């Protein structure tokens, strides 16, 4: 039986009443499925003996800062009517805030004392819970632990890997941001839970896109690694300006539609360019007219033959000028 299941059974088990009879179950607070999932994923952490000994404190959300490296491409609500609520609030922040308002914050966030500002704190994981508490104007429950930069990003990465809700492009930008801060690639790979090959692909996408394109597209959860890699190639072939123009025109659309708009626009440009190149190589070339004149050389003579059937006028033209050509030649010799 897994640790998570044991922990859930401990939380949900019926307490024994005096005399050995089972007491009636406690009524459960209304909690949405997203919060239950987050709590379940975190049970391994909060029931770990080392972490269980750490006290949970309540912090003013105004004293808490996000991690020094961003792991999410936050979504703004698109203009117009969107039928799918997940497209309006793709990270589920509104639902999480409602869950906390109804049932409390079940799982604390992890913070460290801010390395640059005494009296403040910096988040290792739990950004969404922190933002939800900000929305509710209530303190956030947190565990405060001294962490260096490497320990912080490893904790942040483990949390993301446990939830598995970061999209491919968010993971790519998270990796690139860590490398840009001087983190060793093995540490970055460990934080993301990927091998060297996958880390190289993440960095290739993050570094291969035009600057500012990915934040404007957003999370794009339906666009996986192959399409992002192809988009990098299309941007390289068609230019950054074409990509940024396409995403600007799609700013009112949901994130997956923005990705599709940019991808399709660049793919159409590339297809048109290929067709133009193919047409240029297969276009019929002008047919050169065969010469009606042949020259044959033999011992002591050269014979010029003109086909009077195909070029009678040319034959007459040459015949009329032969004497003049010879005199011109002789004059040049003198």
TrEMBL record:
Origin organism lineage: Bacteria, Pseudomonadati, Pseudomonadota, Alphaproteobacteria, Hyphomicrobiales
UniProt domain ParB-like N-terminal: residue ranges: 69-161
Record-linked SUPFAM superfamilies: KorB DNA-binding domain-like, ParB/Sulfiredoxin
Family, similarity comment: Belongs to the ParB family.
GO CC terms: chromosome
SMART domains for the chain: ParB (SM00470)
Example GO molecular function: DNA binding
UniProt-annotated stretches for the region Disordered: 280-299
BP GO terms, sorted: chromosome segregation
Originating species: Acuticoccus sediminis
Gene: repB
Protein name, UniProt field: Plasmid partitioning protein RepB
């Amino acid at each position: 039986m897994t640790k998570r299941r044991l922990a859930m059974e401990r939380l949900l088990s019926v307490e024994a009443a005096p005399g050995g009879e089972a007491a009636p179950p406690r009524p459960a607070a209304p909690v949405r499925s997203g919060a239950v999932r987050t709590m379940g994923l975190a049970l391994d952490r909060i029931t770990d003996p080392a972490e269980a000994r750490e006290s949970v404190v309540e912090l003013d959300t105004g004293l808490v800062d996000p991690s020094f490296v961003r792991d999410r491409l936050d979504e703004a609500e698109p203009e117009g009517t969107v039928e799918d609520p997940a497209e309006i609030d793709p990270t589920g922040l509104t639902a999480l805030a409602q869950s906390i308002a109804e049932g409390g914050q079940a799982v604390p966030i992890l913070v460290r004392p801010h390395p640059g500002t005494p009296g403040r704190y910096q988040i290792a994981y739990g950004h969404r819970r922190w933002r939800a508490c900000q929305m509710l104007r209530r303190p956030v429950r947190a565990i405060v632990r001294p962490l260096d930069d490497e320990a912080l990003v490893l904790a942040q990465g483990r949390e993301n890997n446990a939830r598995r809700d970061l999209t491919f492009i968010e993971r790519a930008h998270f990796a690139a941001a860590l490398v840009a801060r001087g983190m060793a690639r093995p540490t970055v790979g460990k934080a993301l839970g990927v091998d060297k090959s996958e880390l190289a692909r993440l960095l290739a996408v993050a570094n291969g896109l035009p600057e500012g394109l990915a934040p404007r597209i957003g999370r794009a959860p339906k666009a996986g690694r192959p399409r992002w890699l192809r988009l990098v190639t299309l941007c390289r072939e068609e230019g950054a300006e074409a990509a940024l123009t396409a995403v600007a025109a799609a700013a009112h659309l949901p994130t997956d539609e923005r990705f599709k708009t940019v991808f399709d626009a660049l793919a159409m440009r590339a297809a048109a360019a290929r067709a133009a190149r193919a047409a240029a190589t297969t276009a019929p070339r002008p047919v050169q007219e065969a010469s009606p004149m042949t020259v044959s050389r033999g011992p002591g003579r050269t014979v010029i033959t003109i086909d009077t059937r195909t070029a009678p006028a040319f034959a007459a033209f040459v015949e009329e000028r032969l004497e003049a050509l010879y005199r011109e030649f002789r004059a040049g010799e003198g």
